[in-house]
Prior knowledge:
Chain A is of the alpha/beta class. Chain A has a domain at 1-116 and 287-332: Isopropylmalate Dehydrogenase, CATH 3.40.718.10.
Amino acid sequence: MVRLSVDCMGGxxxxxxxxxxxxxxxxxxxxxxxxxxGTAAALEGARGWARCxxxxxxxxxTMDDSVEVALRRKRDSSMRVAIQQLKAGAHVCVSAGxxxxxxxxSRYLLKTLDGVDRxxxxxxxxxxxxxxxxxxxxxxxxxxxxxxxxxxAVLGSALVAAVxxxxxxxxxxxxxxxEAIKGSxxxxxxxxxxxxxxxxxxxxxxxxxxxxDIFKGTVDIVVCDGxxxxxxxxxxxxxxxxxxxxxKQEFTxxxxxxxxxxVAMPVLQRFKHRVxxxxxxxxxxxxxRGLVFKxxxxxxxxxxxxxxxRAYDAARNRLLDRVQDRIGxxxxxxxxxxxTGDIAPExxx
Amino acid sequence: MVRLSVDCMGGxxxxxxxxxxxxxxxxxxxxxxxxxxGTAAALEGARGWARCxxxxxxxxxTMDDSVEVALRRKRDSSMRVAIQQLKAGAHVCVSAGxxxxxxxxSRYLLKTLDGVDRxxxxxxxxxxxxxxxxxxxxxxxxxxxxxxxxxxAVLGSALVAAVxxxxxxxxxxxxxxxEAIKGSxxxxxxxxxxxxxxxxxxxxxxxxxxxxDIFKGTVDIVVCDGxxxxxxxxxxxxxxxxxxxxxKQEFTxxxxxxxxxxVAMPVLQRFKHRVxxxxxxxxxxxxxRGLVFKxxxxxxxxxxxxxxxRAYDAARNRLLDRVQDRIGxxxxxxxxxxxTGDIAPExxx
Lengths: 349, 349
């Protein structure tokens, strides 16, 4: 039995999306049970559901709430109560709430693992191999030091091993050229650390990769600082959305092109399915003493269900233990020693 | 009369691409003349062309040559001789040769302008407004300081004013959130500098922008350090190429989908033209005492012709004077004072 704690109020649409997603998820996962967290009124719709336990919260963290508000003012928010459930037997928590707040509250309530200075956010992006590439960090940490990038590599390896069943997933360090001499001082030193960790058998280090390697599927995991990760994610989302809209515009420009669109529909649908970002929904917050997954705020029921499924897979495959084991190994090897002169972490919206 | 100096040997294809491009360019630009730089054998094909002056070089910088080789060993390369022509009356130089070498040789021969610590590379990316967004820096400078980002903003403003005829193009600072408190220390300080320059009337500063704003067309110019710029450019190229190939694959998967492709061809062609990156070929090297434009190494004749046209527009609209004026203004205002403790610049491939 895997128990998921669900913040039913999070995201742009709240229960109108999360509850149908939970229902569909329960049907396809007979050994899952859910803790549904929300206001009494919102949870009315789930009254009497099998394998579901309602837990009430009186407040909701909105998408615009600052970290400050989420942490200090809304102490009975559905987000916070849902995370708290990890201490009461839930194996993993899922929320579509705002990223900054979710990371801050998770970090406050759960604390980080020994050997992890900063938790990271890992997501997946589709690649040419019809698989996906895991990228981290995605916005939680700016001004990273080399040691942090090594920690991200270890955290990402544990994630991919757990969720995708690859024992030794390959790791690439995002850089502006494949040669080891490229990049900033931080990246060069990170490259040395990752190489040493690879030689010590702690990770499967491929070497430097470039932005286009994410989509080539050159490696399983791409590691970068949170600033670069956030920029590349938002750039990719913006480009994909623009291209999608351009296709739509061209196929609806004239009565004739609309007719063509009808004929081309099955092909266009296959293309759409192939790059459907909803299938890849569910980013992992890694490095905490508990498993938290973040759904896209604008997720629909199908997308939120995918996030639940990813969270379920991670919990079922003991992601938390794996992360702890891997981080422990690198700590023992003296590779992940916390850097001195740490800069206060920051969380992106 | 605008005189362009063309490195005919650069790029993946050399004269087989550059000479046809030059021919087409001359036809549509009756007041242009070209200095064609290459080996005697390679320039045979252009013998007797009107408005063309051949200048011989005995060596060629390959796409794999290091900066070291380009600078110190191949002293009679077509790239170097082409840049040198700027001192003999040419108004602008165009090369499809390797970026690192082109920047290094340009910098060595031309030197930077007063008030510019590091030259930048600016390119354009298509946006939703069916226009384009200028992005810099794209790989020449890692570990940028706030003062460098301000310089990039001023250089970019001069470029867009000259090439696109916008008197006061808007500038956005690439960040991980729109709020001024987001981002690394460098970005925050850069934001303050850019705001001050905006208030002083030196640039038209919009504020922070995010990765997706490049494609939204939120601002005319997006400023970032060379590491981030290189990552976002390569990520975008990789994603666009993957999506294009996916469309192709879906439309050729079965005999039926091939038939559908025939019917949909005019629509697909219009889409293809709309996002054709060849139309946007021609990146500017800014901040030097001379105008140099860089074509994509894999450019075909059409793409190389676009790079020639962009370079021509820049020279015709006195880009160099404009850059000098703008940089001079900000220097006088005490905004672009060179930072102390400068880190050695680095050039990306």
